[in-house]
Amino acid sequence: MLDKLKALFRKLMETGFIKFAGSSLLCWTTDQVLAALLGDLLLPAVGITEVALVANISGYTARVISAGMNFLINRALVFKNKQGIGWTALRYALLAVFIITCSNQGVILLQGLGLPRWIAKILCDFTLYFVNFFGQRLFVFRTWKRDKC
């Protein structure tokens, strides 16, 4: 049993999954901290207090910064991609839009089946975490012959 766990761990290390998990945790923390700083301190300090506006500005700003950080970390350290940044960044953005759309639609579907939103969100995002890893590994950071950007 212990040998099987060691083999699994080695396989996860070889595929970059452990580094991917670390990168994801770091970027998620960055996203949360930035959203809190913007939403609770900076925006109110400059007079922006309307709830929806604060939520949108802080949420989108934090997400764009953390996604950019995640892209750069995954490109350099997780998948060690040396190709041009242009097409790779475009594929990363396309995958991100796909993941967000699947998450939102999955939550709607599971809520329609009677699950509470927070449980539906956890189930969808947990599943999509693996889709995201393999999407980045096989689509975003894969070696493509035509990437010159």
Offer a concise description of the structure.
The protein is mostly helical and 149 residues long. The protein has helices spanning 2-15, 17-45, 51-78, 85-112, 117-140. It has five helices and no strands.
3D architecture notes:
The chain is an all-alpha fold. It has 2 domains: 1-80, no CATH class; 83-149, no CATH class. The protein is 83% helix and 0% strand. It contains 5 helices and no strands.
| Span of the ends, CA to CA | 47 Å
Task: Specify the oligomeric state.
Answer: single chain
- Strand percent estimate: under 5%
Helical region count?
5
Q: Helix amount, in percent?
A: over 70%
Report the uncertain regions. none
**Main beta sheet, described?**
none
- Domain count: 2
Task: Please provide the count of β strands.
Answer: 0
User: Structural class per helix/strand content?
Assistant: mainly alpha
Along the chain, the helix and strand elements come as HHHHH
